[in-house]
Amino acid sequence: MKKCCRYLDALDQNAQEDSSLWQDILMHASRCPDCSLDMQFRGAMLEKLAELPEPAYPRSLNQLIIEALPDNAANPKDEEDSGVFSSWFDRILLPVEVMVSAACLLMFVFLMHTAFTSHSPGDQLLHRHRSVNLKVSALPAIENNDLEKVSGAEVKDFLARLEEFKRLHPDKPSESQNLTPAIELANDTPWRQP
Amino acid sequence: MEQFNESKKIEDSESNMLEEIQRGDQRAFARLVAAHEKSVYRICYRFFADENEASDAAQEVFVKVFRAIAKFEGRSSLKTWIYRIAANTCISLADKKKRDKEGLLQTMLNWWADSHQASPEETLVEREIQQLNQQIVSEKVARLPETYRMPVILKDIEGLPLEKIAEILEIPLGTVKSRINRGRRLLQESLQAYVYGRTE
Question: Which residue among A164, B37, B89, B128 has the highest number of C-beta atoms inside a 10 angstrom radius?
Fold first, then answer.
C-alpha cells in the first residue's frame, strides 16, 4: 500500500500560511497513521537540528586563517614602512622597465625580420648590387671643368700598357671583374699617367 | 531602549573596525577574524561535516573577505555579508569537489540509493527518534543537495529568520521557503530511511 504523504506535501506547498487549509491538514494528520508518523518525525528532526552541538573548533583556527591570508594582509604596513622614496622609485622605475622591454621587443622583431628577408642568395646579390650603386651615387659629382684633358697619345699609350699588362698577367683575375662598368671607370685612377 | 542602545553600539564599533580595515590596519582585520571565525567555521562544518574541509573553507572565506572588504559598501550588515561569502564559498567548494570526484549523474544515483535503503514500516516513533544521533543528523545534512543544504542549515541549525536567509543567499523569500521545505523533506526521508533500515 502506498504511503500517504499529504502532510509532507502540504508542508512543501507552504500550507501553513493558509490557516484554514493547515487546520484541515492537521486534522488529517491526527487520523492518518502515515501523516501522524511524519508529523512526529518532522518535529523530532527539527528539534535535533536545533540542538546540534557546537562543533569542536580547531585550536589553531585563528592562526590558520591569518596564515592563509595573502602576504600583504599579514604585513599591510610594510609598504608604508619602506618609505616615500621607495614608492617614488617604483613609480619612476615602472615606466622605464616597460619602455626598455618594449624597445627590446621591437629590436628583436626588426632583427628577426631582417634575418629572414635577406636570407636567399638572390637577395644577397641584389643587396650587394644596391650597395655598390649606393657607393657610386655617393661619389662627389664631377664638373666638366674639373676633368683632366687627355690627349689621344695618352690614350694610345694607356691602351698599349693595358694590353702589355694583360699579356703579362693573363690568368690573374682582375679586381674590377666583379665590378660594374661604372665602377671600372671610376676606379681607373691608378692607371692614369701622373 | 536598552536593546536599541546595544545594537547601536555594535553598529558603531563595526563601522569603526571597517574603517580601520579599509585603511589597511592589520590588527583591525585580526579582530574581525576573531569575531567571526567561529560562526564561519560552524557554517562550513555544518555544510561539510568534516573538520579539514570546514577549516579549508573557513580560510578561503576570510581570504575572500580580505580581498573584497575594500569594496564593501555597507548595504547589509558585515555579519550578513560574511555569511553570504561563507555560503557561496561552501557551495562553490562542494560543487568543485563534486565535479572533481564524480559526475552529476553519479551524485544523483548515490543520493537515490542512500535515501531508499529500505521501505518504511510501522515502528514506534520513540524508538526511531532514539536512533537519530547527532552525528548521523549532521552527516545527513551534509549530504543534502547544495541547493537545499545551506537554507536548511541557516534556518534549522543557525536559527536565522527567513528574511535574513534571503538576504544572505540573495534569493527571493518564496524561494527560500520552498528550498527549506524541500530540503527538510529530503532530510526527513533520508533519516527515516536510515532509521527504518537499522530497525528492520
Answer: B89
